[in-house]
Amino acid sequence: MPPRIRLPAITPAGATFSITWAYGRCCLSTTNVRRARRSETDEDGEEIVIDLKQQARDDFKAWIAGPGQNFKRPLWNDMNYLTAYDRKTWQRRSDYEKDKMNMPFPLNPAFRSHPVLSEELKDHIHMLITQRGRTIRSVSAEMGVSLERVGAVVRLKEVEKEWIQQGKPVATYLTKALHSMLPVTPLAPPRTQQSFHEGLQDMVSHPFSHRQTFVPVSESKEFSRVDAGKEFGLPPTEEAVPHPDLIKIAKERDMGLELDERVDLQKERERVQREQTDKEKMRKAAKEKPLKVIEQGRFAWRLKDATTGKVGFRYGVPHQDRKKGQVKIPTHVR
Fold first, then answer.
1. Can you tell me the distance from the alpha carbon of 124 to that of 139, in angstroms, rounded to the nearest whole number?
2. pTM over 0.70
3. Residue 83 and residue 6: Cα distance in Å, rounded?
4. For residue range 35-73, what is the model confidence (pLDDT) as tens digits?
5. Greatest CA separation found in the chain?
């Protein structure tokens, strides 16, 4: 919408009410009914009545016919905010002032429009996970996209492909409209570094860390983030961030390790991660294996085959939940 034009507090007698290019950069303020008209006296002592509302309408029409023509239609593949133009000359800013152009609300300079992923980058993320078998964590670290957004891209791409196979219409025009009005993160060319779409290590503040605690510590003892996490029942920050491997890589680089050594260490971490993932899948598959279920009333027994002597020494021992003095609330986060 066009900017608001602030009315002058006092208009000198005999002045003409015409808007200029420089005047069009002012803001429009609502005029109270009591201030809708003002009267002044000229040199001959005659009273002159000034209609401020009519003046505001004339100024607005003049702005629409002048600088407002820049905002009649959105630009293609570029932002067309008020801040994208110089407020004195109403000339479009250069590409070196992209930070000032990405400001949709001039009175709130701290707000910036968040970029959106290009279709090429979405297709590349989907291909890395579904065809090459890459993990979500590795793709997130390589493409500079958060874990949640990578998962959402894969799910939505699968739904899109399913709809196309079923012959359902896909609203691609909405995506094109958004890409034409918002900043877009493109896919980097081959053999070049992909620019980060967003911060990857943003961590949500856990409620356990909101309380205060006082721990006496001797001066000779080093109190680190790991010790602070133990007092709050939380893991250290290096382990709680979405990508702890990136912290390890940065530490190895600061230690002065060669590139080949860092690559070997990263491959070893990826191998361990794959083994843990495979074990977790096997455990879930074994747990979801169909068992024999016997239902009687409000009770249900799930029976599975067991070998005598291999069921464990605590087999048949009930839980301690109903005993007095047992701690039944979580004391730490795993």
1. 10
2. no
3. 18
4. 555 656 656 666 677 788 888 899 899 888 888 888 887
5. 118
Place of tokens 């509302």: 53
Q: How far apart are CA 248 and CA 76, in angstroms?
A: 42
Separation CA 129–CA 146 (nearest Å): 14
Report CA-CA distances (Å) from 154 to 21, 61, 129, 147, 271.
Answer: 49, 49, 8, 11, 23
Q: How far is CA 101 from the centre of its chain?
A: 20
CB 197 within 8 A of CB 139: no
Whether the predicted pLDDT of 33 surpasses 70: no
| CA-to-CA separations, 164 to 117, 131, 161, 167, 175, in angstroms, rounded | 21, 19, 5, 5, 16
CA angle, 30 as apex, 82 and 46 as ends, to 5°? 120
